[in-house]
Amino acid sequence: MRRTHYLLPTLKEVPADADTVSAKLMLRAGLIRKVASGIYEWLPFGLRVLRKVERIVREEMDAAGALEVWLPVVQPKELWEETGRWTYYGKELLRLKDRKDTEFCLAPTAEEVITDLVRREVRSYRELPVMLYQFGTKFRDEIRPRFGVMRAREFYMKDAYSFHADEQDAEKYYKRVYEAYTKIFTRCGLQFRGVEADTGTIGGSFSHEFMVLAETGEELMVSCDCGYAANVERAECRALNPGSPEPPLPPEDVSTPGSWSVEDVAKLLKLSPEKFIKTQFYVADQEPVVALVRGDREINEPKLQRVLGCKVLERANDETYRKVAGCEVGYAGPVGLKERARNPKFRLVADLSVKDIVNGVSGSNRKDYHTVHINVGRDYQPDGFYDIRVIREGDSCPRCGETVRFSRGIEVGHTFKLGLKYSQSMNARYLDEKGERVPFVMGCYGIGVSRVVAAAIEQRHDDNGISWPLALAPFQVIVLPLNVTEPNVMGTAEKIYQELKDKGVDVLLDDRDERAGVKFKDADLTGIPVRVTVGEKKLPAGLVEIKGRDEAKPTDVPVSEAVGDVLRRLK
Ligand code: ATP
Ligand code: MG
Question: What phi and psi, each to the nearest 5 degrees, are found at residue 192?
Answer without folding.
Answer: -150, 175
